[in-house]
Amino acid sequence: MANYFNTLPLREQLAQLAQCEFMDPSEFTDGVDALKGKKLVIVGCGAQGLNQGLNLRDSGLDVSYTLRESAIAERRQSFLNASENGFTVGTYEELIPTADVVLNLTPDKQHTSVVNAIMPLMKQGATLAYSHGFNIVEEGMQIREDLTVIMVAPKCPGSEVREEYKRGFGVPTLIAVHPENDPQGHGLAQAKAYAAGTGGHRAGVLKSSFIAEVKSDLMGEQTILCGMLQTGSLLCFDKMVEKGIDPSYASKLIQYGWEVITEALKYGGVTNMLDRLSNPAKVKAFELSEQLKTIMRPLYNKHMDDIISGEFSRGMMADWAEDDAKLLAWRAETAETAFEKQQNTDEEINEQTFFDQGILMVAMVKAGVELAFETMTAAGIIAESAYYESLHETPLIANTIARKKLFEMNRTISDTAEYGCYLYNHACLPLLKDFMQNMDTDVIGKGLDSTSNQVDNQTLIAVNKALREHPVEVVGSKLRGYMSAMKKIV
Ligand SMILES: NC(=O)C1=CN([C@@H]2O[C@H](COP(=O)(O)OP(=O)(O)OC[C@H]3O[C@@H](n4cnc5c(N)ncnc54)[C@H](OP(=O)(O)O)[C@@H]3O)[C@@H](O)[C@H]2O)C=CC1
Ligand SMILES: CC[C@](O)(C(C)=O)C(=O)O
Ligand SMILES: [Mg+2]
Ligand SMILES: [Mg+2]
User: Fold this and answer.
1) Confidence check on the interface: ipTM exceeds 0.95, yes or no
2) Which residues of this UniProt protein bind NADP(+) (predicted)?
């Protein structure tokens, strides 16, 4: 199997990378109709499998689960997830031949073996669905010609797919039909119905391509979404402890700080996040983020280049062949960090304090969001897609850190995202060493000394202008306009 993207002529690569169209809500008036009465069988019951299945069932669809035999025999967590929630669970042989749509929600690493096992059992004309296109795009998986191949990719961890649905909302979702596999021409109708069943249509659906989804998803997760939050957590914690702040306080400030800060981002973009600071703190955060952007830009470019060329997937697949040696070592190393092991104080931290004492965290989020957005759009990814993969999803990942620190984030995201997160973290920590040497508790842990809100007029005007005119803010304010049903969580 060859990297599918790399087999395409340049013109086709560029066309598919740029394929991305925001779908009007009126396109979803038929809801889940295209899948009503059809049998949906989900392979795997983990982060996406369980949560998507719960939403699809609550939307009136017929959902059951198929697991490998050992998971059923050993009553593993995936079996308990499905059976304790009242779903029918069966082996591949029992359920796959009955399925109209098979949703492959196993880890990307397993896709080739899973698809090879289920494909011969699938009935003629059925549909195979993915939530990430890695197997098709990076591994070049060939699917039987009679099968329709679609993708419905929530731009969000599985846990939040469920939480947002329960709040009556949803998460932005990319849908696509594999151009090589749409024999009956109903791929798009099915993908739309599947997205509606998860609640995605309430937050916004982008009609995209497998290629655009893969290249943008990998970039977002490695950099701002997971890599930057992991690196920022470790650096900010160590700095506060070095400067004498109570470690239990530092730990709490970071664990919940990302969530509080990025909630402001979710509602009003980078502009609103910085508007939550006093004028002097805003100017400081802006200056720090400019420095961070200069230092980190080559790293963001490298991640994007390696993702586009296939170098990233080649390296990750080499690790798969080594039984995840790097991934497992990095995971163990993360668990041993001082931040991860530190207990939190019982002391209350009020909402505004997270901003006032977390100026450096605000600067890191701003720098990461803008760099990820700028790098993706420079590579040909459409602004709407780059927005979801940078600004919109950051709060959803921050929610997972608030639950149980980096452990919870890395447990909840896909193994592919976790690998990319550690890869970024390992490159970014040394890159920010000198920068961090100049940081003190005024920007992380205590806040600025002065209580005055005074700043130079011209400086403030220039900062506000730069914030508001950044392209991520321009597309963001348009997209947030479609999200009026979004529910407050902090
Ligand atoms: N995590 C996320 O939030 C997101 C994930 N995605 C995509 O969704 C897909 C699923 O990812 P995610 O939910 O993280 O996956 P998980 O790691 O949570 O999947 C675990 C499930 O897959 C099963 N599984 C593992 N290995 C095999 C195998 N060899 N054969 C059969 N079943 C297996 C497990 O069963 P068992 O008990 O037998 O091990 C378990 O049910 C991926 O394509 C990912 O990129 C997309 C957006 C976000
Ligand atoms: C952020 C990581 C992600 O792409 C996601 C939750 O969207 C993943 O692969 O887990
Ligand atoms: Mg994603
Ligand atoms: Mg991903």
Assistant:
1) yes
2) 45-48, 68, 76, 78, 108-110, 158
